[in-house]
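Running this now, will post back.
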Amino acid sequence: MSKVPITPEMLNLISAIDIFKGMWPYHPAVISGALGPIRMNVMAQTIGATLRFEGMNADDNHIYQFLTSSLTSIGGNIHEDAIKGLVFTLDNLNVNSTDFLFFPDAVRKIHKHLMQFSSLHYPDFTIDEDLEDLMTWTRNQLSGDVIHPLLIIGIFMVVFLSIDPYQVGQIRLAHCLGFLLFDLAGYGFVFYGALVSFFEKDKDAYTNALLATQESLSHVAPHYTPWLVFFLRRLKDLTMELRGTLEEQLSASKGTKGLSERIVSLLRVHNNLSISQFAVLTGANRNTLKKKLATLCEDSIIQAQGAGKSTRYISSLMLQSDA
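Update: finished.
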């Protein structure tokens, strides 16, 4: 891989995405777990768009019904094996696994998960020299500070899709590996948005950008810019959608949950919190918080530890579980 030129637009896009990345884990809607209900809908969109990119008929609504019910079948869908395999794989992606550092065995394992429900027999996934070189480059770059991680992920995806190491499940595998790279680089928010759906909505631009870069990969200086600009634009679109989702979920939470319930929800996420932290996370008045915390302590729902300004609060249920 050669040097990656960064245009002003790419720099602006990366900056906007990284600002969102920095605020994501501290947003009250994320901390309180309010985004949990949207995960199934996002997964259905991700699975549907990914399979449609492979030329399959996949309906997001049918997939969502399958994910959210006890159904064991999607009603005779001829691509049911692919849907089940992708559901299983996405559910079991684990960037913290000791076997995941983009080594060949880990990639083979993910592909095996994708294909496990297929009634057809396919030869074992093979790692050729080009793919081995790509994985080595990706590992090395992610462990260094030379290229921004979003550019590394974008380059990995466009090169991986050009190598085409296997006759079935190529796009499914590419997006699963992409998810792992995002998580590994600290962009875990992508699990709450269907990035591949943004690719699908602008499919002509996706195809043109992909081909423009792939046709140059054999050159001494590949032309990464077309693909990387498209990739970063769609990723920024995802962050903008998630901003709206965060505010909607936070507003809904404030409208339907009383302060007591929000306090208890926050303590399920954190081991302990101070009154100052509660004030930031809930937006409630400190005097109101003091009264509510005192009431919850009297009712033995939470317990106070320490005294004065050093007082911190912990859920009584957590104390019981540790007993």
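The two ends are 55 Å apart (CA to CA). More later if anyone needs it.
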